[in-house]
Amino acid sequence: MARKFFVGGNWKCNGTNEEVKKIVSTLNEAEIPSEDAVEVVVSPPFVFLSLVKSLLRSDIQVAAQNCWVRKGGAFTGEVSAEMLVNLGIPWVILGHSERRLILKESNEFVGDKVAYALSQGIKVIACVGETLEQRESGSTIEVVAAQTKAIAEKISNWDNVVLAYEPVWAIGTGKVATPAQAQEVHAELRKWFQNNVSAEVAGSVRIIYGGSVNGANCKELAAQPDLDGFLVGGASLKAEFIDIIKSATVKKSS
Ligand SMILES: O=C(CO)COP(=O)(O)O
């Protein structure tokens, strides 16, 4: 089965009401490849989810940036998967390195979150990635494999999961992984799925890259055989996000 190109825009903790409306109208006016060629998802902060969902064209989907690990209840400040379902939000980003590192979310906690969100019918963009220190010590593959394993131990079906490889040293730094560096890790992750989950999942799971992706570097990255799209931070707040969405066409012709 061909893996459909996937482009996610992670707006992180950015935007005012006015700015959000502006980004949405830029997206609404853009000419982008059809839904058959690319799946596009944007992820505004929680407070703007309803606004974005109500204004955004229907061929672009909406994701939350996090959700609570289990059923909602007395968890001050948290947002539950049930609430996302209630709002009609189909996707959630889980395990982003900013949450793993700053908010100390463990591999196991992220695995539990992924399993719970899936159990409620929400699709998951699950993030993995090594720090610069881990890369320099040669443990990149070990780190991303352990992060992926902690998810695999909690779920039995990967159909509704997109795995985002986001090296921490490339996030927000302008230091994008080279196409060869990204391809190497994506291929190793696919091999990990082959050896530890199944050949079928290894062939079908989409592995997307994130970390300083922009309009200028996206095409060369998109051409890598094991790279199935992007999770974009800073550039997803700008018009160049459209160019990144269009890099799906590189894949089609390659
Ligand atoms: O963290 C990211 C997406 O989730 C990547 O962020 P940047 O594209 O700003 O480097």
Automatic annotation (TrEMBL):
Pfam families for this protein: TIM
Pathway annotation from the record: Carbohydrate biosynthesis
Protein's UniProt keywords contain Isomerase: yes
Superkingdom of the organism of origin: Eukaryota
Keywords per UniProt: Isomerase
Transmembrane feature ranges: none
Gene3D superfamilies named among the record's database cross-references: Aldolase class I (3.20.20.70)
Gene Ontology cellular component list: cytosol
GO MF term list: triose-phosphate isomerase activity
PANTHER family in the cross-refs: OS01G0841600 PROTEIN, TRIOSEPHOSPHATE ISOMERASE
NCBIfam families named among the record's database cross-references: tim
Family label: Belongs to the triosephosphate isomerase family.
Protein name stated in the entry: Triosephosphate isomerase, cytosolic
Gene source species: Cucumis sativus
